[in-house]
């Protein structure tokens, strides 16, 4: 119910990504063999917005970027880039019906990126990107990195000939412009003093900024940044936010940002799209996404003060025998829904409590459940709230328990896909080896 109200509130707002999208991704699917990295994904990126694409590791974020920027040819789907305001829906359909890649009419243009190679996407459609791992030319100077980014306009001006490189006025002009642009960006990222140093000498945070400057030197309409805040300290992270705001507000360039750090995203994004396992699970402004139950469950982990009532932990600690008999008991099928308060009424709860995993009282040394990929600090808290503190507890889960927790967290099969049980078994084994004698070996000498 609350969700329907939220959806309606979202729909009624006149968001730029609906009225004036610079990029539209429609039914994008990318398969690698049997793996569906991105499945039937659709979203819009508003012109002049900072749009964030977020989601856990492996959600398919970089794959989306690789499709948008022409590094991968999508298995299916359409990716529309627009110059000039408006949606140009008719023109888009018209080009789609032909085998053309784009259409330019006066100041506006429409490009079908899935049909274009990467260099055409960057130079014609004007989509620039940075990579998850820094890809600067380490041996070149900081300034040279900004100049090579502009080599295409320079080559065009040269007429692709040696004679063109010397003396020709158009080349001289282009060269001067390239230099001007490079210096402008060096000033903006505070690196003028380091212009002649090798790029590899810069500290990590400055290399990240240089990469963004390099992308900006190609004068993009859309700037795609793959985890630009990764590895930055809080100070550098704040600088990055300011740089992104400057790019949006002063340069009027739309930004599509992949980010892992929710703090960064919530602060600067006009629009957030959340992916999980290649599927969109939420789409809206920060306010919408922050309170979306599926995001809380799948990405942020369950929040303490959320409506999800965490059952209190019983004072007794189960013995191993008890855990095992409980696990062996046949379980009714239904897993509890965790979506709304209404769904978790007393009776619904007790009916499904049979499958609830065995709990224990907080031990002196709880395991670091965050080591399980897919478990973050919030989720760890929630698991602790369920009386789950040890890897060996999770290692014992059978399908029924897994489904129960999956339903409880509204995870849609994530526990099985991430294989928490196998991970927990491995960590429990490790812990046993490390001599922290696991309680499951009780009396077995
Ligand atoms: N070139 C590739 N070949 C095979 N699998 C890939 C390739 N690129 C990505 N994947 C897989 O697609 C899924 C999504 O990966 P990715 O887009 O990198 O996620 P994210 O950027 O959200 O962490 C992962 O399971 C990854 O292993
Ligand atoms: Mg990635």
**CATH hierarchy: architecture of the largest domain:** 3-Layer(aba) Sandwich
Number of domains: 2
Percent in helix: 40-55%
Note the beta-strand portion.
15-25%
Give me the CATH fold name of the largest domain.
Answer: Rossmann fold
Instruction: Give the biggest beta sheet.
Output: 6 strands, mixed
Structural class: alpha/beta
Spatial gap, N to C terminus: 56 Å
**What shape does the CA trace take?**
globular
Unreliable stretches: 302-351, 437-445
What integer value in Å does the Rg equal?
26 Å
Q: What would you give as the CATH superfamily of the largest domain?
A: P-loop containing nucleotide triphosphate hydrolases
| Broad CATH class of the largest domain | Alpha Beta
User: Which hetero compounds are present in the coordinates?
Assistant: adenosine-5'-diphosphate, magnesium ion
Q: Provide mean pLDDT, rounded.
A: 81
Q: How many DSSP helices? A: 21
Q: How many beta-strand runs?
A: 11
- Widest beta sheet: strand line-up: 7-8-9-3-10-11
């Amino acid at each position: 119910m609350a969700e329907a109200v939220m959806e309606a509130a979202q729909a009624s707002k006149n968001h730029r990504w609906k009225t004036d999208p610079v990029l539209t991704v429609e039914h994008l699917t990318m398969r690698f063999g049997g793996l569906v990295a991105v499945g039937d994904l659709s979203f819009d990126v508003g012109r002049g917005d900072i749009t964030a694409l977020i989601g856990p590791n492996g959600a398919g974020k970089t794959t989306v970027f690789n499709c948008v920027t022409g590094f991968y040819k999508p298995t299916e789907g359409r990716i529309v880039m627009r110059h000039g305001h408006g949606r140009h829906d008719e023109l888009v359909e018209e080009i789609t019906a032909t085998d053309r890649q784009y259409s330019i009419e006066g100041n506006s243009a429409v490009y079908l990126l899935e049909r274009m190679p990467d260099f055409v996407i960057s130079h014609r459609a004007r989509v620039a990107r940075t990579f998850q791992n820094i890809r600067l030319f380490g041996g070149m100077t900081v300034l040279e990195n900004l100049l090579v980014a502009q080599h295409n306009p320079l080559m065009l001006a040269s007429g692709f000939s040696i004679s063109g490189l010397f003396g020709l006025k158009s080349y001289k002009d282009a060269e001067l412009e390239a230099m001007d642009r490079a210096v402008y960006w060096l000033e903006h990222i505070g690196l003028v003093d380091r212009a002649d140093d090798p790029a590899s000498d810069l500290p990590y945070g400055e290399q990240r900024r240089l990469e963004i400057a390099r992308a900006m030197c190609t004068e993009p309409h859309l700037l795609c940044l793959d985890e630009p805040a990764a590895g930055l300290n809080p100070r550098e992270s704040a600088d990055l936010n300011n740089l992104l705001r400057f790019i949006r507000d002063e340069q009027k360039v739309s930004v599509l940002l992949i980010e892992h750090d929710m703090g960064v995203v919530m602060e600067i994004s006009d629009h957030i799209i959340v992916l999980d396992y290649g599927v969109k699970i939420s789409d809206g402004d920060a306010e919408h996404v922050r309170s979306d139950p599926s995001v809380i469950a799948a990405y942020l982990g369950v929040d303490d003060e959320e409506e999800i009532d965490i059952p209190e932990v019983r004072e007794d600690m189960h013995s191993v025998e008890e855990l095992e008999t409980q696990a062996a008991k046949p379980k009714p099928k239904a897993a509890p829904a965790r979506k709304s308060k209404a769904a978790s009424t007393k009776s619904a709860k007790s009916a499904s409590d049979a499958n609830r995993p065995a709990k224990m009282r907080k031990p002196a040394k709880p395991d670091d459940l965050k080591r399980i990929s897919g478990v973050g600090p919030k989720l760890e808290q929630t698991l602790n709230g369920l009386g789950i503190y040890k890897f060996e507890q999770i290692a014992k889960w059978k399908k029924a328990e897994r489904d129960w927790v999956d339903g409880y967290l509204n995870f849609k099969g994530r526990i099985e896909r991430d294989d928490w049980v196998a991970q927990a078994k491995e960590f429990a084994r490790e812990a046993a080896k490390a001599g922290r004698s696991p309680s499951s070996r009780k009396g077995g000498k």
